[in-house]
Amino acid sequence: MGELGERQRRLVRVLAELDTETWQWMNLWSTVRAFGLPTPRNPLRVYAGLPEE
């Protein structure tokens, strides 16, 4: 995430912290993927520097 600005890093962390129920929405997956971010939830959490759940 070092290549991202502070606002972008914050957005990635917020997305990565969403609960598992929210991550079941396929349109969330599509949106996250469209920005080149890892999906599903745990790979994004790792990318954001958060522990896997």
Structural description of this entry:
This protein has 53 residues and is mainly α. It has helices spanning 6-16, 26-34, 41-47. The protein is globular and about 25 Å long. The model has no long low-confidence stretch (mean pLDDT 92).
Cα-atom radius of gyration: 10 Å
- Secondary structure class reads mainly alpha
Instruction: Compute the average pLDDT.
Output: 92
Q: Which regions are unreliable across 5 or more consecutive residues at pLDDT < 50?
A: none
Query: SSE string, helix = H, strand = E?
Result: HHH
- Inertia-based shape: globular
Summary keywords:
single chain; 53 residues; 0% strand; mainly alpha
Quick take:
Helix content is 51%, strand content 0%.
Write the layout of secondary structure elements.
Layout: H1 6-16, H2 26-34, H3 41-47
